[in-house]
Design brief:
Number of helices of chain A: 17
CATH architecture of the largest domain in chain A: 3-Layer(aba) Sandwich
Largest sheet of chain A: 6 strands, parallel
GO biological process, one term (chains A, B): L-histidine biosynthetic process
Function (chains A, B): Catalyzes the sequential NAD-dependent oxidations of L-histidinol to L-histidinaldehyde and then to L-histidine.
Number of domains of chain A: 3
Organism (chains A, B): Bradyrhizobium oligotrophicum S58
GO cellular component, one term (chains A, B): cytosol
Strand content of chain A: 15-25%
Oligomer: homodimer
EC number (chains A, B): 1.1.1.23
């Protein structure tokens, strides 16, 4: 049974704090194992990569068969259901249109002192996209990671995807094709992350690695961070639904289960000021679970991590939502926009009863790679800026250097950095 | 002696690659030690923090003396040289003016299907600012870290700074005061990072930690990444000067030494198409070193990691500059703006002979926290966006759900996520 909390109960604060602190992932300490793999690939390149692939994916490859060929990609696209490929194209176009609006503006201006200042954005040269194999191989995620990179102007976009026992999901290859991926290698795990970061004879290194993966992948990304850029370390996913008495219990239950079916450590939460709705949703979840193919996973997630929190007034839901900092926040109240304006921490907000989160997962256009596990307190969903970097620009002439220089010299000396001061003084004939 | 390379030599490519690959930091593996400290503070809070401070800073504190008092800050400001405080204020105002221009715009739009989309930026609630103690305690860095946070709208800005043997740099406290820091604690090292990330009875946790530190601090930041946000892991600093025959050898030498005096692992590089200038700069560096207070550090940096690279035409400097991806790039050529437009990878670009990098360190207004050690290939200097996060917004009505829903249902089923499909179908009366 999911937890039921009531804001009115005297020990609510303690209960809520415990609820927030509960760990949803048994984070097996795989750091040492990941480090050994990363170091080996850094040192021995392809040989280590092929060895690890033989061991973990039970797949015998050579350097020349690492890369998925154009013919294989073409064949994969042909094998896919046409309606599904059309849906992927529909999604692709909407995701592209949304992300085109994220392209940043450069700035250049001259201040009162005549100093020219500004900055300039440019795309990173190359990016690596990690795609999990097996059940979590989602073609939609390929689009969500690849399209912002292409929109940013990344020239070389390299995908790695494990193919355990040689199996590759044709839809993943089709999505890579639609998303503009330039190279695909059939490798995964920490070894694939290491190959992307350090490069091998076959796989040229990239500047940044994005995409979700298992604990080994996450540990490897943490290890290579600095050598290359990485996106967030993805944790278990969650949805928070905030609804008033007008909420449709069946729809809300369906949304809670859509989140829960991802993973047994996913989390679905309802906050409502309506006891009637709370009870109805609890019942509806149990009812809908009965016919769900992934009832095992969804049921475990709901039982272990699900929660229904009753509040006296919806006002009280605002600080709770900020503390939860949900990856996905659905608001089904009389005026969802006004309510959304009061919440600070959320990865994405879905407004009104006709915006189930699944729309955002696939075809809304916004990105479904969002900060999980409370990280919406400090980070954002994936976007075009993640594939660009900003270079600042500064230009003084002699007059500007005269105006600014003395203060710089004072600070240089105060910090014990005499050569800093002299580099200014030598241009101004100042001691 | 610094390395001298010539683009014209037959093995230039190999030499340049080796030059790029050379490690400038002996990264002592302090991960295990940092992990033990972080875990201890996470578990035992203040008690562990006080114990580590006693051990590493030789300082006996209690929970109530951890925080620097308003009276101490006031006293510190009074003790500082007035001209230096004025220079800090001048810097503060210029940095603030520059960063105010970085505040991002929200977006909200309705597409052809009638779907409302957009995003909204909000400040993170709290940030921690790590400031090193000892010789690397730079008041200018306090301003560079604090001001973007305040401009972003961060409400609670917490500074930690170690005070070995009880010593605190009054200028650091003055800069914190000018920069709007809300709380200051006299702790440092991995224990301070852990306290900021996990919180203790005395120090409430923050959402993100920024600021440079030693190897233990860097390791601790890597460990708490995910629990909280972090900025980049700072590596050794570098400058690349690109100059043609018009370059002033004495000015360039002064700039190379300003970089070199930071740290024995700092790096100063000149690329020029003028052998005359190359020789003159090499001589000028040796001459200026003789009277430099930090000649030991600067000389070691220049001898071990300095480089002068000759090219036949300045054109050839562009790919070299992109491969080096310097933290600081100074361009002293006939048309520096045109040259800068061709370089993709640099943290900050200083245009023309009258813009020594030291201006950017202190009073230019742009941020001096910049990507080091080739990370300008994939990351940006510190800015206002580092203290904000983006929440995406999506809103469908019944018509929009009818238009987008079927494609979402197709993709949900193709990914084996039936509950995703049903959460859409239940609203559309679709099976």
């Amino acid at each position: 049974m999911p937890i039921r909390l009531s804001r009115a109960s005297t020990d609510f604060d303690t209960q809520f704090r415990q609820f927030l602190a509960a760990k949803r992932e048994t984070s097996a300490d795989v750091e040492a194992a990941a480090r050994a793999i990363v170091d080996d690939v850094a040192k021995r390149g392809d040989a280590a990569l092929l060895e690890a692939t033989r061991k973990f994916d039970r797949l015998e490859l050579t350097a020349s068969s690492l890369r998925v060929t154009p013919a294989e990609i073409e064949a994969a696209v042909k094998v896919c259901d046409a309606a599904t490929v059309d849906a992927l194209k529909f999604a692709r176009d909407r995701i592209e249109a949304f992300h085109l609006r994220q392209l940043p503006q450069d700035q250049r201006f001259t201040d009162e002192a005549g100093v020219e200042l500004g900055w300039r954005w440019s795309a990173i040269e190359s990016a690596g996209l990690y795609v999990p194999g097996g059940t979590a191989a989602y073609p939609s995620s390929v689009l969500m990671n690849a399209i912002p990179a292409k929109v940013a102007g990344v020239g070389r976009l390299v995908m790695v995807v494990p193919s355990p026992d040689g199996r590759l999901n044709p839809l993943v290859l089709a999505a890579a094709h639609l998303g503009g991926v330039s190279e695909i290698y059939r490798v995964g795990g920490a070894q694939a992350v290491a190959a992307l970061a350090h490069g091998t004879a076959t796989i040229a290194p990239v500047a940044k690695i994005v995409g979700p993966g298992n604990a080994y992948v996450a540990a490897a990304k943490r290890l290579v961070f600095g050598k290359v850029g990485i996106d967030m370390i993805a944790g278990p996913s969650e949805v928070l639904v905030i609804a008033d008495d007008s909420g449709n219990a069946d729809w809300i239950a369906a949304d809670l289960l859509a989140q829960a079916e991802h993973d047994a450590s996913a989390q679905s939460i309802l906050i409502t000021d309506s006891r009637r709705l709370a009870d109805d949703v609890a019942r509806a979840v149990e009812g809908q679970l009965k016919t769900l193919p992934r009832a095992g996973i969804a049921g475990a997630s709901w039982a272990d991590f699900g929660a229904i929190i009753e509040v006296d007034r919806l006002d009280q839901a605002v600080p709770l939502a900020d503390a939860i900092a949900a990856e996905h926040l659905e608001i089904m109240t009389a005026d969802p926009d006004a309510f959304a304006a009061r919440v600070r921490n959320a990865g994405a907000i879905f407004l009104g009863a006709h915006t189930p989160e699944a729309i955002g997962d696939y075809v809304g256009g916004s990105n479904h790679v969002l900060p999980t596990a409370r990280s919406a307190r400090f980070s954002s969903g994936l976007g075009v800026l993640d594939f660009m970097k900003r270079t600042s620009l500064l230009k003084c002439g002699p007059d500007q250097l005269r105006a600014l220089g003395p203060a710089a010299m004072t600070l240089g000396r105060a910090e014990g950095l005499e050569a800093h001061s002299r580099s200014v003084g030598i241009r101004l004939n100042l001691p």
